[in-house]
Amino acid sequence: MHHFQYRHGRLYGEDVPVETIVQDVGTPVYIYSRATLTHHFQVFDGAFSHIPHLTCYSVKANSNVAILALLGSLGGGVDIVSGGELFRARRAGIPPAKIVYSGVGKTREEIDYALSEDILMFNIESRQELEAISQRAQALGCTARIALRVNPDVDPKSHPYITTGMEKNKFGIRVDEAIESYRHATRLPHIKVVGIDCHIGSQLTEIQPFVDALKRLRILMERLHALGIPIHYLDLGGGLGITYADEAPPHPVEYAEAILKEMNGLSCTLIFEPGRVIVGNAGILVTRVLYTKSTPTKHFVIVDAGMNDLIRPSLYGAYHHIQPVVPSEREQETVDVVGPICESGDFLARERTLPRLVPRDLLAVMSAGAYGFSMASNYNSRPRPAEILVDGKTYHVIRRRETWDDLVRLENIPLM
Ligand code: LLP
């Protein structure tokens, strides 16, 4: 469900015509819908309303502070993976008691920052990281609440680049090493074991891998309990998929039912780290056609957004639905929609059937709210797009378009 629909032959974001936004801020532009974000968060969070839980939105999916503030106002916490994400979350007013910190490469500086903020817990990914956090907590005279991120070795059956919970992946601690690591952690005076964590991958479209992971964690929790190591928080990570093309991922309510069934009376607070399912379909990327050209084998539509703005098609061969902002009756053509970047891998869609396009037409790249802007770069010295949050009949610029000055702002020509 989302609020990007046609009305009177024009695409709207909630009650605002996309063309109006484009007239004001230009293209390419990311447009998000407040109503969709709110709905997605409330459906997910509401699915667990009858049990103790915390929904910690995964900042990496879309880290704009306005979006973090919105989700925070709905009661959300956050899952962070860097000091930068912690800074954003705090800037957006997320309370430290609702922040969990994952990631395999936390630096000393980042650990100190998170300790000084007294976040809810660190999701620890290796023995060395445990030692590092223990040492920093000792040096700062505080206690770090921790969970171990366990790698349950289940296949989430999604793209290999976004699979994280298999033995061959770099994430987490092996299940059979976990008990020993927990034992060790309980002996560290500045460490307080509070939880267990896993995240098996992203864009999952089946429930079973989540259930399999939970089964393995349950067994581990029972063993820990028997050893007198109580687990208060069970963090199941994120990963619930969305519909980009014709996938039929489980509805959050179905997901919740499966999880709760598998919990089977286990008493602890559940933590979730959803990213994509909250923001993915709550955002679009609007781009303008610059030129069209044909070769004997291809029709190209060259647009003003490229892989630097939305890298998912180039990086993962990901599918994003593309639709004209103003649909036309022109005949259909099969085209590659490509960007201006000097790379053959710079495309938004390949072999896509669309009504014939001409220069200045506007296209909406759908489902671009997650891992869109947050993975954007300045490659080819292209300023990153503006971000807009639509709210009913109004809209807000939540990040202005970068300028050419912004591109060189941090650079310096030394006197030589
Ligand atoms: N928690 C952890 C520890 C994660 O690593 C991730 C995503 C999430 C939560 C959120 O997962 P989600 O609910 O969004 O699936 N750039 C890729 C996705 C990489 C996901 C990385 N980790 C893409 O564009 O598909």
Brief digest:
The chain is an alpha/beta fold. 29% of the residues lie in helices and 26% in strands.
Query: How large is the count of helical segments?
Result: 12
Q: How many DSSP-defined strands?
A: 21
Helix share of residues? Answer: 25-40%
CATH superfamily of the largest domain: Alanine racemase
Provide the number of structural domains: 2
Radius of gyration: 23 Å
What is the third-level CATH name, the topology of the largest domain?
TIM Barrel
Bound small molecules, by name, code or SMILES, are:
ligand LLP
Biggest sheet architecture: 9 strands, mixed
Return the structural class. alpha/beta
Between the first and last Cα atoms, what is the distance in angstroms? Answer: 58 Å
Name given to the CATH architecture of the largest domain: Alpha-Beta Barrel
- Beta-strand fraction estimate: 25-35%
Overall shape: it is globular
Q: Low-confidence stretches at least 5 residues in length (pLDDT < 50)?
A: none
Query: CATH first level of the largest domain: which class?
Result: Alpha Beta
| Rounded average pLDDT | 96
Can you walk through the features of this model?
It is built from twelve helices and 21 strands. The protein is an alpha/beta fold and 416 residues long. It has two domains: 4-32 and 280-407, Lyase, Ornithine Decarboxylase, Chain A, domain 1; 34-276, TIM Barrel (Alpha-Beta Barrel), CATH 3.20.20. A hairpin with a 2-residue loop joins strand 1 (4-7) and strand 2 (10-13). It is globular, with a radius of gyration of 23 Å. The model has no long low-confidence stretch (mean pLDDT 96). The structure holds ligand LLP. Ligand LLP binds next to helix 10. Ligand LLP is lined by residues 58, 60-61, 79, 102, 162, 164, 199, 202-203, 237-240, 273-277, 312, 370-371.
